[in-house]
Design goal:
Distance between the termini: 37 Å
Order of helices and strands: HHHHHHHHEHEEHEE
Number of domains: 2
Number of strands: 5
C-alpha cells in the first residue's frame, strides 16, 4: 500500500518542483503556469495504474509531455513519471516483448524536446541523459523482474516439497495408527464375550494409540498453516520403540537389534529413519499375514542401515503410497530403499547417509 501511493505522490512532488524551476528560469513568455502544474499532476496520477496497465500509462504520459511541450512550456518536468513507468513495463509480461517496449520509451520521448516551439538538439545533454537513464531503468526493471520470478519459483518449489513432506508425515501417522487400532478393535470384538479383561485391555490400547497420534497430527497440520505458531519437536528415533511396542500389542513376536546411534545423526536423518521404520512396520501389521517381525538398525562409517523383516506368506500387491513415501524420504537425503519378497518373507532395507548430500540439518 505504501509503494502504491507513495511512489505517485513522491513523483508528483518532484514533477511540481521541476516545473516550478523550469518556469522560473525560462526567460520567454509561456501560457498560464496553472496548466503546466496540472500536466505535472496528471502524469504523476497515471502512476496509480502502472502495475496493471504500464504500457497504456506510458503512452498517456508521452501524450501529456508532448502537449506540455507544444503549448510552449520549457523543459520536460512532467516526464519524471516516465522513469517510474519504464521500470514497471518489464513486469507486464514476457521479457521478449516487455523489455524492448520499456527500452523504446526513452528514444520515443527524446523526440519531444527536439520539436518546436523550443527545439533542442538531439545530442543536447538535457535530452541524451534522460533518454539513456530511461533505457537503463528499463533494463534494471527487467533484472529485478527476473530475480523476483526466480525467487518466487524457488519459494513455490520449497513450499511444494514441504507440503509433500507433511503429507508423508500425515500418511505415516494415520496408516500406523489406523492399522494398530483395527487390530486392537478386532481383538476386543473377539474377546468381549469370552474374556472381557482382554477386550478392555484392547480398548485401552485403542485409546492410547489415538492419544499418541493426536499431537503428531496436530503438529503436521499446524505446519500447513502459516500462522506463526511455534514449531513442535519432530519425531526422533524414540518413535521406533513405540512402533515396535504397537506391533507386539498387535500379536507379533518382535525381535530387535538396534545399535545405539543417537548423537551421530542429525534431526532430519532421525526423522527420516523413524518414519521409514514406522511405515515398514505398519505394512507388516496390515498386510503380511505373519506373526514374526525383525527390526535391525546399525551404522557403519558413513551410513545408517535399517532392515525390517517379516515371515508373512501373502503375496504383496502393487507398491502403494507407503513404499513410495519411504523411497522419497530416503532419496531426499541421498539414500535408497529396497523392498521385496525373500525366501523368508518380506524385507525392507534402507541405507541413509549419516552426512546427507545437500540436505539441511
Amino acid at each position: 500500500m505504501l509503494t502504491r501511493w507513495g511512489v505517485p505522490l513522491f513523483t508528483m512532488g518532484l514533477a511540481i518542483i521541476a516545473v516550478s524551476a523550469e518556469l522560473t528560469t525560462f526567460d520567454q513568455p509561456t501560457p498560464a503556469p496553472v496548466w503546466a502544474y496540472l500536466v505535472a499532476l496528471l502524469t504523476s496520477a497515471t502512476l496509480f495504474a502502472r502495475t496493471r496497465w504500464p504500457v497504456p500509462v506510458a503512452v498517456v504520459i508521452l501524450a501529456l509531455c508532448l502537449g506540455y511541450h507544444l503549448l510552449g512550456y520549457p523543459g520536460q518536468g512532467p516526464a519524471f513519471a516516465l522513469v517510474v513507468v519504464v521500470f514497471s513495463i518489464p513486469k507486464a509480461g514476457r521479457l521478449a516483448w516487455s523489455l524492448p517496449v520499456g527500452m523504446a520509451v526513452g528514444p520515443v520521448w527524446s523526440v519531444i524536446p527536439t520539436l518546436p516551439p523550443h527545439p533542442v538538439s538531439w545530442l543536447d545533454w538535457a535530452v541524451l541523459s534522460p533518454m539513456l537513464g530511461m533505457i537503463t531503468i528499463a533494463v534494471i526493471g527487467a533484472v529485478v523482474t527476473v530475480s523476483a520470478r526466480q525467487t518466487a519459483a524457488e519459494h513455490a518449489a520449497q513450499a511444494a516439497e514441504t507440503r509433500a513432506e507433511i503429507a508423508r508425515d500425515i500418511h505415516d501417522v494415520l496408516a500406523h495408527t489406523v492399522a494398530a487400532i483395527t487390530v486392537q478393535s478386532n481383538l476386543a470384538l473377539d474377546a468381549i464375550d469370552d474374556d472381557p479383561e482382554i477386550a478392555r485391555s484392547a480398548v485401552r490400547r485403542v485409546r492410547d494409540l489415538a492419544r499418541a497420534a493426536t499431537p503428531q497430527l496436530r503438529h503436521s497440520l499446524l505446519q500447513l498453516r502459516d500462522d506463526g505458531r511455534p514449531e513442535q519437536p519432530q519425531p526422533t528415533l524414540e518413535l521406533i520403540g513405540r512402533v515396535l511396542d504397537d506391533a507386539r500389542a498387535a500379536g507379533f513376536q518382535v525381535t530387535e537389534d538396534i545399535e545405539p546411534v543417537r548423537g551421530r545423526l542429525g534431526p532430519v536423518t532421525e526423522l527420516t529413519a523413524a518414519r521409514i521404520v514406522q511405515e515398514a512396520v505398519t505394512n507388516v501389521v496390515r498386510h503380511s499375514g505373519g506373526g514374526r517381525l525383525t527390526c535391525n538398525i546399525s551404522t557403519d562409517e558413513d551410513s545408517l542401515s535399517l532392515e525390517i523383516l517379516d515371515d508373512g506368506s501373502r503375496m504383496p500387491g502393487p507398491e502403494g503410497l507407503g513404499i513410495a513415501g519411504m523411497r522419497e524420504r530416503a532419496a531426499a537425503l541421498g539414500g535408497i530403499v529396497e523392498a521385496g519378497r525373500t525366501s523368508y518373507g518380506y524385507r525392507v532395507h534402507a541405507s541413509i547417509p549419516i552426512a546427507p548430500r545437500g540436505a539441511a540439518t
